[in-house]
Amino acid sequence: HAYVLRRKPPGTLLPSAHAVDREFTVISALHAQGYPVARPYALCTDDGVIGSMFYVMDKVEGRVLWDLKLPGLEPARRRAIYDSQVDTLAALHAFDPAAIGLADYGRPGNYFERQVGRWTKQYRASEIDPIPAMDRLIEFLPATLPPDGPTRIVHGDFRLDNLILAPDGPQVRAVLDWELSTLGDPMADFSYLLIAWVIPATARNGLAGADIEALGIPSVAQTVERYAALTGTTPANLDWLFAYNLFR
User: Fold this and answer.
1) 106 CB contacts (<8 Å, ≥6 apart)?
2) Helix, strand or coil, per DSSP, at residue 47
3) Secondary structure letter of residue 61 according to DSSP
4) Could you read off the pLDDT of 134-175 as tens digits, one per residue?
5) b vs e for 123-143, b when ≥16 Cβ sit within 10 Å of the residue's Cβ?
6) How many other CB atoms are found less than 10 A from the CB of residue 200?
7) Rounded to whole angstroms, how far apart are CA atoms 185 and 169?
8) 87-124 pLDDT, tens per residue?
9) 112 and 244 Cβ atoms separated by less than 8 Å
């Protein structure tokens, strides 16, 4: 059988970074619900075994697609992949954390306020040279926070290249990389997904400037409509949410 070992990197790390024990907790709960994650087997918290904490999970066979323009695919296949991606995120946000054993996976309420504070601390801990634009953003974000949304499981890095797709179809077989996951506002995840539409298409993770209609890729409005139909939630303050995600 083929397995994957995911370990906490050795050396000095930023506080709370690479929390593989939290990853193991969330994918264990989600796997039990039939959500597409790799099956987890065991967590080892003893650093003496291989030098750092690690867990073991199944190796999921499939495709990881890195370029959001999905070169080489037909428009209908591109659209199916984008729809599947949104459906998978909406399914995650449908879970009541308490109902699946994750009531204490994070603190409810004030999600964006806490996240802005956390990432500000991470930025300051990594800062080398002052960047005035970042300083203005650090002042702007906490002064203009959106109202709190419902508390749901937030992946924290939900994007196409963190999904394993079926080898010959659009189905999501596994969502990867849960190290930033917590309980929070689902709009954080959804707006992070939408950020691709404002990143230049010259970057592999951007779509701005691409002829998305010809490519078969849905627009922001179409993506919002699909997500809203599945969850009953429509994002507001997208400009603020985009600024927040680019800050992260």
Assistant:
1) 154, 182, 183, 184
2) coil
3) P
4) 999 999 999 999 988 899 999 999 999 999 999 999 999 999
5) beeeeeeeeeeeeebbeebee
6) 11
7) 30
8) 999 999 999 999 999 999 998 889 999 999 989 998 99
9) yes
